[in-house]
Amino acid sequence: MDAELKPTLDSPLALARLMADGERRYEQGLVIERGALVAAGLVLDPGVQQLQAGRWQCDLADQALSWTEPVYDLFGLPRGICPVRATAVALYCEHSRAIMERLRSNAIRHGQAFVLDAELRPNDGGRRWMRLVAAPVLEGGRVVRLKGLKMAL
Hints:
Layout: E1 4-6, H1 12-20, E2 30-32, H2 39-43, H3 46-49, E3 54-59, E4 64-67, H4 69-75, H5 85-90, H6 94-110, E5 113-120, E6 128-139, E7 142-152
Parallel strand pairs: 1-2
Antiparallel strand pairs: 2-5, 3-4, 3-7, 5-6, 6-7
């Protein structure tokens, strides 16, 4: 099934509501219109930060990841290590990993943000669900980074 396409998610309040919405699931993904989610501004908004969501970033030039503490906890990895993308991706359950990689490719190719509820097998055992919000960061018309939020469901 293809990801849904929604017109906009253009305010901190809209992003906060989406992150906190426990009624709806985005297991197939939700594609957000190009330019509708301004990652830096929305991710840093105080209303969004109160959700206890972790911030993350991936530099596409070298796949280097940057995480805040809640993201380490989601993946069951020790805080402060230098996270490696291949290690993090391996902790997604197969069905979630396939959808995440498809949405990520689309984000890089078309500059569209997305939301995904993904199932993880964290390094510290068990299974858990997280809500992932990813937004492209463009420089010179090219996507150079992805950044966003991750939060336990």
